[in-house]
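As the next step, I wrote out a protein sequence along with its fold in token form, included below for the reader:
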Amino acid sequence: MIASSPCYTKFIKQTNLMTVTFSEFAATADAREQIAANALKYTQMLCEALEQNFLHQSIKRAQFLMPSSDNPQYWEERIADYKAGKDVYKFSIVTGRKYHKIVQTCCDGSKSVHAFVDKNTGELYKAASWKAPAKDVRFDLRIIGQREWVLENCDWAGGYLYK
């Protein structure tokens, strides 16, 4: 027979274990589904903002380099290619079990992970590897102020994700 320790019993009595009944769980199902749908929508908005940022930065860089170049026609062609959608990075969403993974695809076909968004909460994480996010939440896309800041200040290279 296993005797219960006094420390464990004291801990259990002090801990307020929250139990949810099935009816309470079912009543919040619509809210959880709406949050998950919004998380996907905000992730798509972030992908579009990242693509626009890459395009804007690429054109700006080409315009800066053109006057000092020996071959300004090359930079004019690059700008035309960018505006036509050639040689631009694409950002897509790969949905996993827990996260929406924002994948950056280069013009040569190579891929890397830009960030992760929690499917259930809309929290934005910096990527630690191809498979996992970094530990700390960088932004919460459910919060309007944070979402607007991210969409206005995001950059394709991920600098906004560093603390």
User: Anything to note?
Assistant: The beta strands are 90-95, 99-105, 111-118, 123-127, 133-140. The longest strand covers residues 111-118. The mean pLDDT is 89. The chain has one domain: 30-161.
